[in-house]
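INFO  loader      accepted 1 record
INFO  loader      residues=133
INFO  predictor   begin
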Amino acid sequence: MKIWQTVGVLSIALSAWHVNAGEIKTEPLAGELPTEEKAFVNAIGKLNKAKIVELLGEPAKAEDVKLKDSGRVVASIWHYHYINTAADGEYYQTTELDFIDDQVNVVVFLNNDGSEQVPAGQKYEVPEVKPEM
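INFO  predictor   done
INFO  writer      dumping tokens
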């Protein structure tokens, strides 16, 4: 390859890298969801179910609420284990994501496996944001 071709290829590669490096991220990439509870609530509210599964995997437990007439899922409760920390750095045993349609509406951090009737932990309403697709 001649030197001017090499310079041209390098120039194109550097230009492409520069454009990608300057992009503004609007949602977390795999492995980038924060573990701290308040930061997690702010991040998770921007994601739909498909993106959450991509980032966290399938939930340990999932329950759906369906309309009787159509069978359409209108709400869901998902449980994940040991993915979030309290302010003191201790992990919550269970993180519960409560969905309405495809968006997280409430996040509950539990100090149990999620099967107890009385939750022992923190509960946060997710701030209303428009989801990014």
